[in-house]
Amino acid sequence: xxxxxxxxxxxxxxxxxxxxxxxxxxxxxxxxxxxxxxxxxxxxxxxxxxxxxxxxxxxxxxxxxxxxxxxxxxxxxxxxxxxxxxxxxxxxxxxxxxxxxxxxxxxxxxxxxxxxxxxxxxxxxxxxxxxxxxxxxxxxxxxxxxxxxxxxxxxxxxxxxxxxxxxxxxxxxxxxxxxxxxxxxxxxxxxxxxxxxxxxxxxxxxxxxxxxxxxxxxxxxxx
Length: 223
Known about the structure:
Number of strands: 4
CATH superfamily: Metalloproteases ("zincins"), catalytic domain
Order of helices and strands: EHHHEHEEHHHH
CATH class: Alpha Beta
Strand order of the largest sheet: 1-2-4-3
CATH architecture: 3-Layer(aba) Sandwich
Distance between the termini: 40 Å
Oligomer: single chain
Structural class: alpha/beta
């Protein structure tokens, strides 16, 4: 798994973000899962996060479909995503240009739908997600590189939400990344019966992260 990061504003290298990363690493040390040493760097943390989600997603699919053609360890090395960090003005422009929605938002995802599985062929809303440690063979394989899609994160919103909800910037970045990455894998919480919410919750809780976007929206609707 590779991630091409575009951070033209320098958000990840700002003093506040770097300070948040130092604090957030203490959270990572409490996680009872194998985290590669390279993931201790802030920019490669997102690679770990993508691998962690993807491996558990593949294990889930394989548990239902034992004759899957592509093995996880080979397929994962052929994937890359684009991860862009932008401000509110830029994400509003992107939202309008591609989705015809004239407002800013916290995160956007643009899946290319290249995966050979549809998660809804296997997962039901009441499925009990049990996650596994990340342990991936680092050997390169000769599968052509394929782009899963793009994730665009609004750094202005990251700062606002982290402050409002009193949690770390990297906790907020993780929540947004997890939510958007699941969209790249084919999940759609606006149309499903809770499958994305449940899988997202399992991932967040296993990583000691606070509640996510779907829960926030539900609480906002009921408050």
